[in-house]
């Protein structure tokens, strides 16, 4: 999928695309990292991008928005603010995505899942399972950046702001490791 020049210019302007050697949440390695926080730090840009995404979901009747911590929290909150519904977030406890802080999902609630970046889709799938386990129904997924270029399939309508296939490698096959280049873990999992 091709991104518009305008979207590419925004990523560049915000210095959100980093080049180096990164270890991702899934354990995969990559040369390119999308630092969504560089976009989300601008409330005006965030409001506009989420507004454009929600326009495509106008046909959906959404009761609640959820995002996984950390990246999904701001996105879920902004989407919920525009939709005038509640926003909650899930977080990992001993590696498992759970609802804490007294958050509840009403039985049958129509839920939108918001996420900053998707690489393997594992984190979003964990949130979807959590919502279903709690009695909600995921009606759509909204992504700021889809590194699969639209290939990931959550079995519900999925909307993306930035979408481009970006390579990542199993650690054993990483060409950067083979060249002895030191890797960093920019995500919050490195802090736990
Ligand atoms: O599609 P996946 O392979 O699951 O990878 C994407 C996940 O990785 C990042 O989170 P991270 O754990 O780095 O936490 P953060 O949002 O707090 O940085 C990102 O925010 C997604 O949740
Ligand atoms: O897969 C990830 O962990 C990941 C990739 C990326 O480009 N950006 C990010 O914040 N997380």
UniProtKB/TrEMBL annotation:
GO biological process: 'de novo' UMP biosynthetic process; pyrimidine nucleobase biosynthetic process
Top EC class for this record: transferase
Gene Ontology MF terms in the entry: magnesium ion binding; orotate phosphoribosyltransferase activity
Keywords: Glycosyltransferase, Magnesium, Pyrimidine biosynthesis, Transferase
Cofactor: Mg(2+)
Pathway assignment: Pyrimidine metabolism; UMP biosynthesis via de novo pathway; UMP from orotate: step 1/2
InterPro entries, per the entry: OPRT, Orotate_PRibTrfase_bac, PRTase-like, PRTase_dom
Binding site for 5-phospho-alpha-D-ribose 1-diphosphate: 115-123
UniProt: orotate binding residues: 119, 147
Lineage top rank: taxon: Bacteria
Protein EC: 2.4.2.10
Ranges of residues in domain Phosphoribosyltransferase: 45-165
Catalytic activity: orotidine 5'-phosphate + diphosphate = orotate + 5-phospho-alpha-D-ribose 1-diphosphate
Assembly and oligomerization: Homodimer.
Recorded family membership: Belongs to the purine/pyrimidine phosphoribosyltransferase family. PyrE subfamily.
Function: Catalyzes the transfer of a ribosyl phosphate group from 5-phosphoribose 1-diphosphate to orotate, leading to the formation of orotidine monophosphate (OMP).
Entry-linked NCBIfam families: pyrE_Therm
UniProt-listed HAMAP family: PyrE (MF_01208)
Protein name: Orotate phosphoribosyltransferase
Gene: pyrE
């Amino acid at each position: 999928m091709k991104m518009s020049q305008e979207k590419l210019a925004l990523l560049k302007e915000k210095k959100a695309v980093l080049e180096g050697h990164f270890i991702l949440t899934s354990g995969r390695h990559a040369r390119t990292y999308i630092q969504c926080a560089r976009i989300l730090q601008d409330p005006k840009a965030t409001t506009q991008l989420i507004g454009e995404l929600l326009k495509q979901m106008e046909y959906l009747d959404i009761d609640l928005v959820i995002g996984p911590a950390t990246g999904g929290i701001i996105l879920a909150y902004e989407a919920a603010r525009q939709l005038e519904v509640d926003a909650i977030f899930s977080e990992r406890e001993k590696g498992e995505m759970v609802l804490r802080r007294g958050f509840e999902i009403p039985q049958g609630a129509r839920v939108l899942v918001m996420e900053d970046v998707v690489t393997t889709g594992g984190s979003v799938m964990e949130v979807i399972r959590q919502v279903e386990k709690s009695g909600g129904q995921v009606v759509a997924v909204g992504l700021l950046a889809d590194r699969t270029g639209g290939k990931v399939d959550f079995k519900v309508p999925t909307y993306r702001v930035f979408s481009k296939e970006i390579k990542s490698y199993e650690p054993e096959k990483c060409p950067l490791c083979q060249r002895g280049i030191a890797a960093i873990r920019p995500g919050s999992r490195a802090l736990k």
